[in-house]
Amino acid sequence: MKIKKSTPLGHSSSLPSSSSLEIRRRTQLIKLAAYSSMARAVGSRRVWSRALILKLSAGKRIGHRSSISLSARSSLRCLGMKRKRSKTVTKRFAAKKRQLEGPCPGVVELQRLVPGGESMDLCGLLEETAHFVQCLETQVRVMRSIADQLP
Amino acid sequence: MQPCSREMQGGMNMNSLLNNGNNNNMSPSHHHQISLQDLHNPIHGSHSFDPAAGDHDFLDQMFSTINPSWADLNPAADGPDPAPDSNGNSIGPFGTHFDESAILASKLRQHQISGGGGSSSTSAAAAAKALLLQQQMLMGRGFERSPSDVPGVDESVQALYNGFAGSLHGGGGGQLLNQSPQFHHPQGGTPSFGAQGQGTKPAPAASASTTTASGGGGNTTNTSGQPRQRVRARRGQATDPHSIAERLRRERIAERMKALQELVPNGNKTDKASMLDEIIDYVKFLQLQVKVLSMSRLGGAAAVAPLVAYMSSEGAGGGDCNGGGRNGNGSANDSLTVTEHQVAKLMEEDMGSAMQYLQGKGLCLMPISLATAISTATCHSSRPSAAAHGNPLTASNGDGPTSPSMSVLTVQSAAGANGGGPDGSSAKDAASVSKS
Fold first, then answer.
1. Residues 6+ apart with CB under 8 A from B270
2. How far is B280 from chain A (nearest CA, A)?
3. Which residue in A49, A55, A87, A108 could disulfide with A71, CB within 3.0 to 4.6 Å?
4. Which residues on A lie below 8 Å from B247 (Cβ)?
């Protein structure tokens, strides 16, 4: 597990009472750090990790607020040419299949939850979800142990 | 009786064939006839034997009578006939029919290969013998196996067909063509009794999903000798490539759902849709845990309050409240007050119902001493007031002892504590994320 140097976890308790806005900003930072470290640990092995990395890097460059709207577009644009073709092909095929048989609403919901899930059919989506759930569980355990160790 | 008679017909055909073929040969013809007659005798005998023990005897008999003729069939070897005892011994230890048939098939193949250079009639005789043997074994199986056992029969039958047909094709495709009509008849005869009413013709087609290399051999040997590769579908399913792909896809999805079932707690749902809902809820819960953990150390009930608002608004069926934010805080306060009043009312009548009400909201009751202990142990609060805010992740549902001295954990929101409450115990509910 890579340790992000920028994580502000260590500094939190030393600061005096801060406004809720400040707290919220710091919470967001910590959360982003957690997700980016998780995605970087997985690397390019998984679709969701790649999509997460792209989203986070795009968000850091442009600004956190607009990162969410850009995530889908940037994830497609920043990928290499070969990947892009295969991904758009898969997306088109998945879209066509969706039109044909109309997935249950759970599938749409899951696609929204799992990063990079919009361009996947149910089969790949389930696999990505399994790996994503595993990594999330590990992340929660790590964060909890960190939080327990802090004074 | 009827199957036996048909088999006898087939046997007669074979017999005549072999006789004709053997008359061209020199010495072993007589021996062949004798061996065939010996073969026929066991057929008669097989009617009356009991299914339990008779099978091995039957096959041993067959092997003992046949094996001398195998040696004779080999044109190169001219050795003396091996004694039936040794043959019986060599075959005896075989436990299953499948082994015997496999060994027979391999033996046949060897003979085909070795006898391929021989005269056409010899190889034809060998093939004919092989088919006759096959019929015998099929019949033996058909007689002593119950109809419920047929799938097993089909497999062994399929293996037999593959073995023999493969060797037939490999051995002498052109040579057998003129004899294939006669072969077809016995082969057509066998399915009627070999499979107890289920045609083995469609049954080999239906038993395995893929065949061996010479898959076309499972079909009639009437087709030309080129082996054709074809994917056999299961019984009752089409061989359409689209449906095959569809089936593959469905199987893959099913196995992935099973893997997810093990990961997700409460994964015992059989329905796919409800399983999907569970998965979605679990992913949302994990993401929420990450979010809460990222703010757990930052201190202040203000950090936790949006979470409380979110949780309580969810519990209240919050269509009208937004979770988080100032608005959420305000309405959450209202909903919290409502909840608090409700709980107080319930507590007056019955503790159990109050507990159940709280549990339905995902909240719990906790003695103040314990709450303070937890709060001082885990969280630092900048406010000097003795407000205890629980760690929202402690899922302590159903923990609280039902004693009258118990009070409800208080949570102070950023908007200021709504003191009040009866007897100084401000009964704001504790938010505990319960994942049971």
1. none
2. 6
3. A55
4. none
Please tell me which residue of chain B has the smallest CA distance to A30.
B294
Q: Residue B243's CB: how many other CB atoms inside 10 A?
A: 12
User: Two tokens at B20?
Assistant: 């004709």
Q: Which residue is closest to A29 within chain B, CA to CA? A: B294
Distances (CA, A) of B198 to B11, B140, B234, B268: 22, 16, 15, 39
Any B CB within 8 A of A20 CB: yes
* A143·B282 Cβ contact <8 A: no
The conformation of residue A45, written as its DSSP 8-state character, comes to S
pLDDT tens-place string over residues B111-152: 555 554 444 444 444 445 555 555 555 555 544 444 444 444
Q: Residue B376 to residues B272, B356, B403: CA-CA distances in angstroms?
A: 45, 28, 23
d(CA B140, CA B59): 8
Question: Which residue do the tokens 């082996």 mark?
Answer: B227
pLDDT in tens, B291-318: 888 887 776 554 555 555 555 555 544 4
Place of tokens 């294939």: B180
Provide the residue ranges of all domains of chain B, joining segments of one domain with +.
241-299+335-375
Which positions ≥6 away from B85 have C-beta within 8 Å?
none
> pTM for the full model?
0.40
Contact A150 B297 (CB under 8 A): yes
ipTM of model over 0.95: no
